Amino acid sequence: MDLSAINPILFIAGFLVAATPLIFAAxxxxxVEKSGVLNLGVEGMMITGAICGxxxxxxxxxxxxGFVAAAVGGAALSLLFAFLTxxxxxxxxxxxxxxxxxxxxxxALLGQSYVGIKPPRLGDINFGPxxxxxxIGPILFTHxxxxxxxxxxxxxxxxxxxxxxxxxxxxxxxxxxxxAHALGYKVVRIRTLAIMFGGACAGIxxxxxxxxxxxxxxxxxxxxxxxxxxxxxxxxxxxxxRLLLGAYLFGGITQLQLNLQGAGVAIPVEYLAxxxxxxxxxxxxxxxxxxxxxxxxxxxxxxASH
Amino acid sequence: xxxLEKRPEPSRAFSLATPLLAVVATMVFGGLxxxxxxxxxxxxxxxxxxxxxxxxxxxxxxxxxxxxxxPLVLIAIxxxxxxxxxxxxxxxxxxxxxxxxxxxxxxxxxxxxEGWYIFPLMVMxxxxxxxxxxxxxxxxxxxxxxxxxxxSLMLVYVAExxxxxxSLGLLKNPEGFGFPGSRNLQQYESAYNADLIAGSGxxxxxxxxxxxxxxxxxxxxxxxxxxxxxxxxxxxxxxKFSGVNPTRLVLFCMGMSGLLAGLAGLFEVSGPxxxxxxxxxxxxxxxxxxxAFLGRLHPVGILLAGLxxxxxxxxxxxxxSNLGLPAAAIQVFQGMLLFFxxxxxxFTNYRLxxxxxxxx
Lengths: 306, 360
Known about the structure:
The complex is a heterodimer of chains A (306) and B (360).
Chain A: H1 8-34, H2 42-60, H3 63-87, H4 92-110, H5 136-140, H6 145-163, H7 165-175, H8 177-182, H9 187-213, H10 225-235, H11 240-263, H12 269-287
Chain B: E1 2-6, H1 12-36, H2 41-49, H3 51-54, H4 58-84, H5 92-110, H6 118-144, H7 148-168, H8 204-222, H9 224-234, H10 236-241, H11 246-270, H12 284-294, H13 299-323, H14 327-344, H15 346-349, E2 350-354
Antiparallel strand pairs in B: 1-2
C-alpha cells in the first residue's frame, strides 16, 4: 500500500468534479420537494440526460449543446411524471419508480450505437494567472464551466427560495397546497414547473457524468447517483447550502475510495466500491431523527374539488 | 371544460379493466416504438406475444414461461403486501442476490457430499439471506424512522458488489481455471433444483410461487394480519385506532418480501442459472415492481401479470434473435406498461365530468 501515491491537490480537485453530478441532481430535486412533490425518478432522468447529452455532443461536436440537450431530455422525461402525478393524480412513489425503470430502458435503447465512443472534450475555463497560484490554483481554477455553474445554481436556488416572491409561493405550495390553492395560486402549474426544473437539473447532472467525469457512455452508468441525490436532499434538511456541503462529502468519499483502489489498499475493490452506498445509509440513519424540515405536503396528492 | 370528480368508492369495473387497457395501450405505443426502430410493428407484437405460446417452437418456450414467471410472481407477491400497507421495499433485487448467495453458499459448503437434506437446508438459507437483507431497512425504519425506500435501494448496490466479491473470491470454483463464478450446481445432484417433471419447466420455485399466491390470498382475505395491512394502506389513522401495531407490520411486510425474494434467488441460482456469477441477477427484483402493480396488488392478478411479463421477456428474446429488436426495447416496453397503468388508474378513483362547474 502506498498512500503517498494520492496527490492531495489532485484529490481535492477530483472530488469537486465527483460532486458536481450530485449537486445538479440534488438541487433540482430539492426544488421539486420544496413544492411538495416527491419524484423518485431522479436516476431515470439522470441517465436519460446522460445519453441525450452524450449523443448530441458526439453528433454536433459541441459539449455545450450536449448539456442543453441533456437538460431538455431530462425535463421532457419529467413531464411524463408531471402528467401522471399532477393530471391523472397517480401515486408519486409508484410514478417515480416507473420513471426510473423507463428511463433506464430508454437510455439503453438510445445509447446502443454510442458505446465505446469518446465524446468531444469541454475545455477548462482559462483563469490566466489565477491557475498558477500554488495549491489553490489547481484546486479551484482548473475546471470546466459546468462545475462553477453548479455552485452558482445552489446559490441561485437559495436566493430565490429565501428572498423572492416566487420562492415564497413555491414554499407555500409545498407546505399546504390547499391553502395555496385557496389563495388563488395554480398549484398544478407551479408543481409542473418545479418538476421540469428538477428534470432539467438531473439531466445536466447525468450529462456531467457521461461527458466529463467518465467520459464515455455505458448502460446504467449513473449507478445509483440519482438515488444518492435523493438521500442528499434529506441529509441537507431541504437547505441548499447544506446540500452543497453534503455533495462535497459524498464526492470526497467517492473520490477517496477510487484513489484507495488505485493505491492498492489491502481492502478488496468491491468493499471499497460499496462504501458510498453504505455511508449514505449511515448518514440517513443519523439524520432521520429530525423530519421537521420536510415540506408538510411532501408526497401528498393534490385534487382541487372546486 | 373537463373536470375530475372523485368517486365515492373506487370503481370495480375500472379496477379490473385498467390492466387490460394498459396492455392494449402499450401494444399500440410499443408498435409505434418498433416502427421508429424500423421494424414491422405487427410482426414484432406477434413475435413477442404469440410466438412463445403458439408458434412453431412453442414446445421449447412454454416451459420458459414458468421458469421466468416463477421468480417474478414470488417476488411480486412479497412486495404487494408491503405496497398495500404503504411500506415500500424496492430493494428486492438485492434481497434476491443475497438469497442466492446464502443458498448457494450453504449448498457449496457440503460439496461433494450427497444427501437429501442439502437442498432443504439451501432453501432455508436462501430465504434467510433475503429476509436478513430486508431486515436492515425494516429495522432502521422502525428504530430510527429512516426512509425504507432509499435504504433498501442502496442495499441493492451493496449486494451487487458483494456478489462480485463472492463470485471472484469465496464461492469461486476452485476447478474453474481461474474464471469467475462458482461451481455449477446443476452438476451437483443434491443441490440441483431440477424440473420435477423433466422438460416442463416446473421446478421447486414454481411450486413455491403457487404456494405464495395461495398464502397471500388467504392472508389478505381471511386473516387479521391481512386486514391490518389493508386498513393501514387505505386509512392509516383508522388503523391506529383499531389497534394495528405499525412496527410489527413493517417488520412482517419487509421480512416477508425479503424472504420471498431470497427464495426466488435461491431457486434461480440452484436451477435455471446454475451458478453464482458476477452478473447472475437480471433485474427480476425491479421488474417484479411492475408485476405487483399490474396485478393490482392482488395475488391472482399478480399471478397473471407475472406470466404476462415472463411472456414479454421470452418474446423479447425471440424478437431480438429473429428481428434484431434491441434488448433495451423490451425494457422500454415494460416501463411503458407501468406508465399506462398508473395513468389509466385515474378512472378507478375519479370520474370525468364534462361541462362547466356550477357555481356553488
